[in-house]
Write a structure and sequence with these properties.
Number of strands: 0
Radius of gyration: 22 Å
Number of helices: 3
Length: about 120
């Protein structure tokens, strides 16, 4: 598998990582070989991770895509669904904490006015 065979969102993530790595360097003093090595290592890491994902699901290293509506591959779709479920669970947890805090404030006759990341300590 080559880097160009990865889904575009994975290519974008890899490019962002390379950019962030290069941002930490003084590009006027860094050799081209160092930049090439960073890029090469990130590309190879993404390819390897993606191949391992395919391998664990398909029991081989050949990329098999099952199109979904909109042309999104099944692997990308499943990854996004898992990520969204995790975000939803985190938001539900936060909402439950806020609701609990609001109820405690109301029970004490207080107004709820927490700002930012302050914790309600009751």
């Amino acid at each position: 598998m080559e880097f160009k065979d990865l889904p575009v969102p994975f290519q974008d993530m890899a490019a962002n990582i390379v950019r962030s790595q290069l941002a930490t360097l003084d590009l006027s003093t860094v050799e081209k070989e160092t930049i090439d090595n960073i890029s090469h290592n990130v590309r190879n890491a993404f390819i390897k991770l993606y191949e391992e994902k395919l391998s664990s699901e398909n029991k081989d290293y050949s990329p098999k895509f099952t199109p979904h509506p909109g042309g999104v591959s099944e692997i990308y779709h499943e990854t996004m669904v898992k990520a969204l479920r995790m975000q939803i669970a985190e938001l539900e947890h936060k909402l439950n904490l806020v609701s609990k805090c609001q109820n405690q404030h109301k029970a004490k006759g207080l107004h709820f006015h927490h700002k930012g990341k302050q914790k309600c300590e009751h």
